[in-house]
């Protein structure tokens, strides 16, 4: 009987290994599919960052988008009002340190400030419990497109003509005509002139997120920071000055800290959480969660924001991402860009001291 059992056991072994091998192959295939290896036309983070790099030019050691910027520091003073909607300790009454970065879009770190209406503000909140909240905001109230695929198509349409160094107007026009969801952004862009100061702009999360309260209930939310400083039209930069935004910020901070109010807008049932091109109605309830205070600035090449990847999906307990497809795409593209620029820095002049400053690889 034992002999027949041994024969049966040996007979089963090839099948067992075949099942294990099949499982391994399926897992590998899944990774290959996600990575785009089995489908050259599948959109991947690498292709998105390649397109950004092609449009902005290769500038080793710099971000592939929002390459031109300045580091800032300060804190967030929570008034405790938002604590009822989220258990994140950043919303409990008190102060949370912040490392941030003002920037303009594009991959060229030498671009003129007047070349675009868009300004950005990225923040990293370092919570007392060791967790972090990172957010990357822009000064327009809606995003251009709703999906990563449309964003990639826009990058392709905006590829500079080698002869002129500028995008082809007809090609961009065709893209916008094929994407009616861009209408809200275009309306904003046509009405807004490039601002003269980072300090007088509001900055929007664009994507939706969830706040999670003590009972586990989710609250769909978008946020923005609104400045106390106002643009009265008297601050007119020199047209020949390509770097007036950083200089204006230096002057303002020399006179005192700059402040913004963090406003959380709560969605109503039916408000889209998966489409950053659609604004929520203006009558939605808004909570003033506290005050963002920026009190210092440093050049980005050696400042504290240099090594921060402002991935908007890095959230503390009490906050979650929504079903917006742009969020995972942004996270993956930010990581690809981060790995490129940090690996390049090791080959740049002065790289010997850079390693000592690289305290964060997230």
TrEMBL record:
Its cofactor is heme. Its EC number is 1.11.1.-. InterPro entries: Catalase, Catalase_core, Catalase_sf, Catalase_SrpA-type_pred. One of its GO terms (cellular component) is cytoplasm. The active site is at 66. GO terms for molecular function: catalase activity; heme binding; metal ion binding. Has an organic peroxide-dependent peroxidase activity. Belongs to the catalase family. This is Catalase-related peroxidase. It comes from Dyella soli.
């Amino acid at each position: 009987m034992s002999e027949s059992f041994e024969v049966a056991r040996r007979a089963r072994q090839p099948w067992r290994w075949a099942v294990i091998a099949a499982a391994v192959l399926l897992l590998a295939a899944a990774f290959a599919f996600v990575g785009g290896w089995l489908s050259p036309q599948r959109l991947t983070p690498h292709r998105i960052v390649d397109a950004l790099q092609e449009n902005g030019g290769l500038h080793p050691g710099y971000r592939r988008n929002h390459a031109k910027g300045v580091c800032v520091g300060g804190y967030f003073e929570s008034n405790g009002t938002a604590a009822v909607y989220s258990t994140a300790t950043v919303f409990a009454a008190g102060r949370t340190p912040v490392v941030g970065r003002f920037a303009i879009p594009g991959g060229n770190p030498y671009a003129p400030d007047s070349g675009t209406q868009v300004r950005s503000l990225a923040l990293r909140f370092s919570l007392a419990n060791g967790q972090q909240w990172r957010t990357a905001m822009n000064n327009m109230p809606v995003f251009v497109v709703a999906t990563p695929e449309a964003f990639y198509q826009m990058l392709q349409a905006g590829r500079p003509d080698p002869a002129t160094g500028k995008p082809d107007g007809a090609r961009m026009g065709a893209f916008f005509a094929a994407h009616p969801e861009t209408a809200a952004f275009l309306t904003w862009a046509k009405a807004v002139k490039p601002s003269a100061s980072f300090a007088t702009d509001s900055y929007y999360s664009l994507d939706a997120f969830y706040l999670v309260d003590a009972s586990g209930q989710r609250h769909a939310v978008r946020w923005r920071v609104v400045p106390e400083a106002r643009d009265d039209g008297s601050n007119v930069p020199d047209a020949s000055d390509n770097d007036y935004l950083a200089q204006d910020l230096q002057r303002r901070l020399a006179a005192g800290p700059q402040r913004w109010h963090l406003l959380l807008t709560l969605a109503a049932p039916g408000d889209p959480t998966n489409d950053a091109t659609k604004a929520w109605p203006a009558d939605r309830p808004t909570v003033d969660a506290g005050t963002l205070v920026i009190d210092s600035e440093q050049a980005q090449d050696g400042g504290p924001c240099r090594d921060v990847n402002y991935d908007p999906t890095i959230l503390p307990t009490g906050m979650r991402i929504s079903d917006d497809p742009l969020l995972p795409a942004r996270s993956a593209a930010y990581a690809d860009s981060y790995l490129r620029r940090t690996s390049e820095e090791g080959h740049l002049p002065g790289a010997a001291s850079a390693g000592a400053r690289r305290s964060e690889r997230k």
